[in-house]
Amino acid sequence: MHQTRTTHALTIPRPDRDEVARGGLVELTALDDLLSSLDDSDWRQPTACGWTVHEVVAHLLGQHLETARPWTIGGRIRAARRRFPGLSALDAHNALQVATFSPLSDVELRTRLARVGPRAVRMRRRTPGFIRRQPSERYFPGEPLVEPELAYVMDVLSNRDTWMHRLEIARATGRPFRGGDDGVVAQVVRDLAQEWTGPPLVLELTEPDGLWRLGDGEPAARVWTSAIDYLWHLSGRPGEPHLEGDPAAVEALLAARVVF
In this predicted model, what pLDDT tens digit does every residue of 162-192 receive, in sequence order? Predict the structure, then answer.
């Protein structure tokens, strides 16, 4: 462990705009490196979210295109509701992205994402405060977040979404999961702490390393686990991570979920 001092997870600061932009570019570079290693059959592999690798990249392209052109988002959400009336606003929006961009070839998806991704990162960084303060439920009702403003979506969830889908692609294709935005894990732990109702404990994560306190009061337990495996579990994806420590604390950690 590189981190020896335990820090309460609620004290983890939210990233500023420059940190978010740096993390976003790091994630896009790591994603493009991963995609460049795939062969034709890899793009057809199913991932843990139910989409193929090709469809996951179609979704990511849609996300970044809309972020780069924020004036299009309202119309896309309305179109998604009309096309997929049986889905929630968020699920319909994602489904429309996949339907719109899946007809592109694998190479076209990767090329367009590499081109538009940095523009989306720059646009998020420049988004004015009056937009960042808008409630996210205005766009996606019924999707409560730990922080209700669009700034949370831009500064926290955007890079987290790319990180998790990159992990999905790596696992679906048997590729290594390398590097990325170091802040993603810490922000997930902060979200976990904001809604934590379990016993006070110390959570020790590895690869990347972190040592965090959850809950109020003197920690009654300590739990060890892989950061990547635990974030996978927190997102609701199938598979149970290996956690070691006090059984009650382990049970509480396994029951927790965080929005991805």
Answer: 999 999 999 999 999 998 998 999 999 999 9
Here the tokens at position 6 are 């335990």
Residues 57, 98 contacting (CB under 8 angstroms): no
**C-alpha distances in angstroms, 153 versus 103, 111, 141?**
28, 25, 14
The predicted-structure confidence for 38-54, as pLDDT tens digits, reads as follows 999 999 999 999 999 99
Strand partners, 224: 204, 244
**Alpha carbon distance 169, 184 (integer Å):** 17
Q: Write out the residue limits of the CATH 1.20.120.450 domain(s) in the chain.
A: 15-179
Dihedral angle of Cα 188, 53, 96, 258, to the nearest 10 degrees: -20
Q: What's the pLDDT band for 1 if we cut at 50, 70, 90?
A: very low
Looking at the chain, the domain(s) classified CATH 3.30.1050 span: 184-255
